[in-house]
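Subject: design request, 428 residues
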């Protein structure tokens, strides 16, 4: 079948959105389908069994240049600093960013979004192509789904599959803007009423969207990607007798209580030798905790790393960290990093606020883990127990993407059979 996957983010982006779309494309192409990915991501040199069409968001490129001007530093006789003009506007931009992140607008999933400016150029390309058998799109951004909906309604595709990595309505992190949220609800219902199938990333999300839309949902978990690792530059040498603890991916400071972990490390350093590496966001916050707990020779933040560097960290780590979100209203988040840790049979330290989350449930059948509440005493005990065990070197293939995408491949195969039956002489 000819399949169009619409994903604003795609490789070489390192986001979950890019990885999920890449996994779908890879699995469907391996099953013999003709897959094309439509994206705004820059062209990449990776080899694949599917086509990638890159249509840049020209408006975003202009906005990025405009905002980057106010973060530029200037050279003075006292060293490198910001000019008064750029400092003034930088302050305004920082305050706007705080508001943006609290509401989830502009590239965080809620409306309005700068990806909206990509919609017209992307659809102009779609309508020039032969009719697709299947169009598939994933939230977020919501423009992916709106493009797929228009493709189906204008009879440019036979089937439409809507995928959700996160909830759009009643988002667990972002409240959205009050009046615009009403418009988002209408668009969400319109998409759900016109899609042929809905897929989601977690069981709880399937239940939520089923409740919101009345539509049956198929859960397709995220999975680890098979790729070659490459070693990042580390700010320390790692002796063979030192324990390496790592955390890859995002940290949400308002929903993850990581201070007790640092308190546990401070207690542990008197009796154990270890190094802890964070790779991802919140560098300033981590560095402030390093100073607060006097862990300068033990904890490091490596900044944002590419996927192959993160994979290398996972491969050499003794313990991998996962901090569950403190959100009982929506426990349906399973971080991709947690699945990657499990796929590589690593010892996992899982910290939770509420033990009934999807992530905690997924870990129940996994042996190499310590699950502990967010408190110093339990964290210290868990680290001590993990210090005595070794990670396995074999991989758990059930946590890789090809295995997790079996239900999607089966779904497409059934759609293919339906199409053939509808076009058979007997059906006519």
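Subject: RE: design request

Done. Sequence follows.
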């Amino acid at each position: 079948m000819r399949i169009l996957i619409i994903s604003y983010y795609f490789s070489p982006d390192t986001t979950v959105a890019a990885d999920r779309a890449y996994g779908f494309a890879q699995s469907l192409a391996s099953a013999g389908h003709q897959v094309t990915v439509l994206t705004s991501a820059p062209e990449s040199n990776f080899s694949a069994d599917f086509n990638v069409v890159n249509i840049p968001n020209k408006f975003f490129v202009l906005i990025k240049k405009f905002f980057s001007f106010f973060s530029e530093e200037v050279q003075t006789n006292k060293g490198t600093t910001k000019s008064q003009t750029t400092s003034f506007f930088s302050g305004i931009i920082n305050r706007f960013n705080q508001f943006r992140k609290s509401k989830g607008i502009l590239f965080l999933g809620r409306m309005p979004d700068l990806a909206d400016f990509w919609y017209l150029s992307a659809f102009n390309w779609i309508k020039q192509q032969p009719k697709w058998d299947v169009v598939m799109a994933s939230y977020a951004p919501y423009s992916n789904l709106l493009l797929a909906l228009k493709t189906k309604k204008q009879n440019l595709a036979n089937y439409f599959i809507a995928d959700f990595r996160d909830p759009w309505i009643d988002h667990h992190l972002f409240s959205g803007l009050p009046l615009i949220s009403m418009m988002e609800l209408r668009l969400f219902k319109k998409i759900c009423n016109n899609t042929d199938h809905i897929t989601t990333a977690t069981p709880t999300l399937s239940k939520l969207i089923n409740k919101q839309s009345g539509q049956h949902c198929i859960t397709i978990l995220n999975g680890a990607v098979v790729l070659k690792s490459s070693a990042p530059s580390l700010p320390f040498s790692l002796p063979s007798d030192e324990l390496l603890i790592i955390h890859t991916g995002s940290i949400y400071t308002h929903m993850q209580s990581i201070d007790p972990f640092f308190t546990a490390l401070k207690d542990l350093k008197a009796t154990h030798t270890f190094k802890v590496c964070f790779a991802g966001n919140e560098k300033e916050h981590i560095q402030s905790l390093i100073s607060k707990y006097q862990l300068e020779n033990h904890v490091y933040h490596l900044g944002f790393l590419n996927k192959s560097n993160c994979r290398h960290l996972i491969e050499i780590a003794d313990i991998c960290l996962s901090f569950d979100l403190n959100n009982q209203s929506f426990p349906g988040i399973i971080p991709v990093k947690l699945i990657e840790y499990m796929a590589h049979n690593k010892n996992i330290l899982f910290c939770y606020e509420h033990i009934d989350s999807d992530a905690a449930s997924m870990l129940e059948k996994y042996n190499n883990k310590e699950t502990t509440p967010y408190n110093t005493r339990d964290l210290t005990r868990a680290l001590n127990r993990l210090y005595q065990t070794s990670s396995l070197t074999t991989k758990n293939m059930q946590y890789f993407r090809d295995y997790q995408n079996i239900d999607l491949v089966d779904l497409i195969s059934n759609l293919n059979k339906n199409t053939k039956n509808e076009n058979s002489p007997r059906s006519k």
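The CA atoms of residues 188 and 399 lie 30 Å apart.
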